[in-house]
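Teaching soon. Invent one.


***
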Amino acid sequence: PEDAYSAEMWAQAERYFSTLPSGASLPGGRFACAQVLVQRRLPWLAGYSLGQVCHIVQIAISQRKLLGYTNGTLVPYNRSESKKKAVSALNQHPCPGKSSRRSTVVTWDTLRSCLRSLLEPSAGRSPRIPLSNIKRVFRSQFQLELSETSLGYAKLSELFSDPRLEDICAATQCTFGYVIVPAPGGGGRWLADADGEARGSAAPRRVVPLSMDLIEA
């Protein structure tokens, strides 16, 4: 989103968010968070509509890194799980507390191999994998820990947008959320619709999955 707000407003926002008491949090939804901030009648938000405050919250999360997520709520970025994941991704380490010590962490080679196995068509049917449960699938079927930060990404969705996977899978949105499907055309030029049918795309496009439980189309 475009940031058209003043430097002074952002300076005050940074002071406010950084001094929130330890243990304090804001609602995880951008709109709900904006509502709470408006109700607090903060001087640095005076004159802004609810829609504008929602936009400010979005920028504070995605661009300014003033807020981050922890357990589904928003907290000062320096105290958030978002920052921990970003640091782990930078160092290509599992996020502290997220990976099982007993599990082998997935590498790029094993990720590609496991995805090929999961997405192998059976009896003429094309499998689809809901993105939200992919880590559980890797644990249960391969006894492997899928850590996006170990592969250099702070978000699972960003991992599945990596060009190293585009010849294996694509993601599309169904009524129940995002799913991963085989990439029949390769090179990221194909997506699958909600019924699992391949369709061409005029320009390469990637959509990212957020969870996975194996489903037969």
